[in-house]
Automatic annotation (TrEMBL):
This is TetR/AcrR family transcriptional regulator. Residues 29-48 bind DNA. InterPro entries: Homeodomain-like_sf, HTH_TetR, Tet_transcr_reg_TetR-rel_C_sf, TetR_C. Residues 6-66 form the HTH tetR-type domain. Keywords: DNA-binding, Transcription, Transcription regulation. GO terms for molecular function: DNA binding. Pfam families: TetR_C_13, TetR_N. Gene3D superfamilies: Homeodomain-like (1.10.10.60), Tetracycline Repressor, domain 2 (1.10.357.10).
Amino acid sequence: MARNVEFDEELAISRAMDVFWKKGYNGTKMRDLTEAMGINSSSLYNSIGDKHELFIRCIKHYTESRMAAATKQLGRIKSPLKALEKFIQSSVYAITNEPNSCLAIKTTFEIAASDEKVQKVIKADNKFTYNLLIDLVNKAIEKKEITVSQDAEMLTDYIMNHFSGWHESFIIHQDKARIKKMADFLLAQISK
């Protein structure tokens, strides 16, 4: 009988996440995962489950890590407008410098529409981002750092919708300057 290999589960999840990030859910084979994680398939099945369960854990790990990083980074900035600008600039940096773009957006377009468990994780990530941004928008309005002709909800939706468009544009054109220009235009619109 084969012996199950002991392993660092957090490291294994991180390595599996990288494989899914590069190849997508459908393009990733179990062999790709076990090789990257440095374990055999029985250890994977016994400790985590099947490919789908591993993918859910990877997406959760990715989105929760982003949430924690954003909360920490933006919590240090006193001006809500400056925090909003930082979030947008950080997003532009990630879009144009991370080799595999955003795992959450890639997942949304690949399988979230047909997979309820994945959709639940992506919705939680989206809700977090929306709540983070609307809080900053409301505080910036209260402090008169920005003025809006529409309500805060509309402005927040307007900001959020740019991110997926920028991802698509960068995937197609690979033009960092183009994305930066669009972000600068968005920031100029918000700051009016």
